[in-house]
Automatic annotation (TrEMBL):
Gene3D superfamilies in UniProt: Antioxidant, Horf6, Chain A, domain2, Glutaredoxin
Source organism per UniProt: Kushneria avicenniae
Domain of life assignment: Bacteria
Alphabetical GO biological process terms: cell redox homeostasis
Record keywords, A-Z: Antioxidant, Oxidoreductase, Peroxidase, Redox-active center
Residues annotated as catalytic: C45 (cysteine sulfenic acid (-soh) intermediate)
Protein name: Alkyl hydroperoxide reductase subunit AhpC (Peroxiredoxin)
InterPro entries according to UniProt: AhpC/TSA, Peroxiredoxin_AhpC-typ, Peroxiredoxin_C, PRX_1cys, Thioredoxin-like_sf, Thioredoxin_domain
Amino acid sequence: MALQLGDTAPDFSQDSTEGVINFHEWLGDSWAILFSHPKDFTPVCTTELGEVARLKSEFDKRNTRAIGLSVDPIEDHHAWKGDIEETQGCGLNFPLLADADRSVSEKYGMIHPNANDTLTVRSVFVIDPKKKVRLTLTYPASAGRNFQEILRVLDSLQLTDNEKVATPVNWRQGDDVIIVPSLSNEEAAKLFPQGWDEKKPYLRMTKLNK
C-alpha cells in the first residue's frame, strides 16, 4: 500500500555519497525532503540536483535536510557529482542514496510498474521531525520538479503547525492567511486581536502580526 499523509516514514539504512545513512537517526529533529531520480547521468536530474544544492541555505533556514535517491550504484553517483558541479555551477552538498537493491524505493513506492518497472519515478516526500509524511508529490520522469513550490508548501506546513490558520491558493510568506473554520469568532478574537476580513462565515482572512 502506498504511503499516505500522516504515515510514519519508513526507516532504512542505505549507502550514500556521504556514507551509510540510518534515516531516522540522520533526520534527528529536522524536517526532510526525500526525492528520487530515475537514474544517474540524466539531463533533468542533473538540473534538479544542482538546484537543490543552490537552495541549501533556504532549506537550512527551515530546519530541513535534503536527501536524494537513485537506484544506480555509488560509483556512478560519485562520477555524476563532477558533471553536476560542472554544468550547474554548484556541487552536491547533501547525500544521494545509492539504492541499487531498490530497498528504499520499494518501501516508499517509488517504482511505478506501469510507468517503468525498473526506474524510480520523480517522487517527493516531505517528512517532519516526528518522522511523519506530510507531503507527497509524484512527477513523471520527463518533467523536472519546481523546488520553489516545495519550499512554499514547506513554509505552509511549518506555519500551520504552529498557528490556527490555513493558507489560501498561491500563498507565500507574508500573504494573508485563513482562520481555520473550527475556531469560533470568540476564540478567533483572542488569537487574532488584529481582526479579520470575513468574506463568508467560513472564510475569514487575516494578516499574522509575526
